[in-house]
Amino acid sequence: FLFVSAVEVKIEVVIPEKERSKEEMSPNGKASPLIYKVNGTARHYHLEEHPIASNPYHNPKDVVEASVCHVKDLENGQMREVDLGCGKALLIKESGEFHAVGHKCPHYGAPLVKGVLAKGRVRCPWHGACFNISTGDIEDFPGLDSLPRFQVKIEKEKVYIRASKQALQTQRRTKMMAKCISLSNYNLSSTNVLIIGAGAAGLVCAETLRQEGFSDRIVMCTMDRHLPYDRPKLSKSMDSHPEQIALRPKEFFRTYDIEVLTEMHVAAVDIKNKTAVFKDGFKMEYNKLLIATGNMPKALSCKGKEVENVFNIRTPEDANRVVKLATSKNVVIVGASFLGMEVAAYLAERAHSVSLVELEEVPFKKFFGERVGRAVMKMFESNRVKFYMQTEVSELREQEGKLKEVVLKSGKVLRADVCVVGVGAVPATGFLKQSGINIDSKGFIVVNKMMQTNIPGVFAAGDAVTFPLALRNNKKVNVPHWQMAHMHGRIAALNMLAHGMEISTVPYLWTAMFGKSIRYAGHGEGFDDVVIQGDLDELKFVAFYTKSDEVVAVASMNYDPIVSKVAEVLSAGRTIRKRDRCCFFLFFRTGDMSWLTGKGS
């Protein structure tokens, strides 16, 4: 919010009128305890009214106001991190107006001042989340929360910020949400919205429905024993406990009446009767259905695959168990996938030895290309990871039931106390084969730009779907990225409410190994050339992936925020051409996009 007087510039957290009281949107009183029979046992769910945070300005002692700069200190298109004494804010000047929001990305805390400002939003330099500079609202993912917005005032050509101390400390804002009107009146075996799967797509779908004022029943069900959690951390921070990586605390689900049924396995979907049939015989009717079941890891098919201490990393318990067993022991990882490489990096300093077995000649060759793959491989080798390439596992040998050795088809025998399998995944859609929902030859659910399946009222999202990617001329693709799952869930929710919203986001991912990250934006499947800028040996580079004459993706290491800058170019519908080699260096060094004058140029 901006207002100008003849005197100074100030910033203050402003809550829209419709968001000032959650009670106004929540006619739901305390519901009676709900009882479900899950896996043969009765479970009680008591949905309570929780205290709601009020306007942060209700207490004058919670408000701070400070002069942060002169109006001429910032040019249009500039950002500055400013200190208000008890916390910092991000001050932005665009089109002659000042805006102020939280200075840290709510996802992992990246400094947004190092991000990319373009057309009314700022993009995170680390993982690509986007926030509206006028409202603070999150517009692209990953992450669930928005930024706090502060009031700006100009007086005597000075810029002032007025803000809630609490907002400055938390640096995040959860959007206002509706609640269920009266859960006690519902038939326990029916729901308005049923979400199968409790990952990022499912959770964002549920939250978006509530944010849009949906006040009917929402039920999420998952085979997992935990509430939704940050799944990428299973391979990046393997000793994290479930409560440490939870996306939302238990109280959140109670407050906003989002029911989560854990350890529930859907065995079939009856689209004619709009019913989900669970493995234990329980049935639940729905009006709208979201299928967001993700994928299932592939298992080894070799002799001895059932021996003890062979793991797929699927749950926090899996990751925790591997770390415990691997400490000071011999670890063999099968598959140089993202999961396999991240696990290898995490265990390298903890295990006695880490060996990685891969069928290809270079890690990440199909995704990042041979040159980048070799640079990454060299980094791993310098950190004591031993590679066995262009071979497979032929046998897992045991001693007293526990893993002892991994035998390769090359004839090599590796000592192994623990084996982690990361050879890819398949969509978890087997239960839909007889449903009538359109599934492709690889098992992916086929959806349109609105995340709708061929069945009215049935939506699908996340790793288990193929959808039209605007970036690649609406080619049907599968993009199993954390960021994309978030966006799928949001689009599905909006279209359950008949908003007619189409997906157009640019894929964005990252991987973390040995304290270094590779950022990646776009969709490089089928690339035929890689243009490298920088120094691969020093692990400071940008790689442009091209197909024919067009740049279809970009990856970088130690050169933020170049990937976020490219993501903004692609998001604007512009095309970077391979023939613009003379501009790559300028783009790489300065991020100057002035040579991109329009779509196709």
Task: Give the topology.
Elements: E1 2-4, E2 8-11, H1 22-25, E3 34-38, E4 41-45, E5 63-70, E6 78-83, E7 88-94, E8 97-101, E9 116-118, E10 121-123, E11 130-132, E12 138-140, E13 149-155, E14 158-164, H2 165-170, E15 190-196, H3 200-211, E16 218-221, H4 233-236, H5 250-255, E17 258-261, E18 266-270, E19 275-278, E20 283-291, E21 295-297, E22 310-311, H6 316-326, E23 330-334, H7 338-347, E24 353-358, H8 365-368, H9 370-381, E25 385-389, E26 393-399, E27 402-408, E28 413-415, E29 418-421, E30 425-427, E31 445-446, E32 458-460, E33 465-469, E34 475-477, H10 482-496, E35 508-513, E36 516-522, E37 529-535, E38 540-547, E39 550-557, H11 562-571, H12 581-590
Parallel strand pairs: 1-13, 2-14, 15-16, 15-20, 16-17, 20-32, 22-29, 23-24, 23-29, 24-25, 31-33
Antiparallel strand pairs: 2-13, 3-4, 5-14, 6-7, 7-8, 8-13, 9-10, 10-11, 11-12, 13-14, 18-19, 19-20, 21-30, 26-27, 27-28, 33-34, 35-36, 36-39, 37-38, 38-39
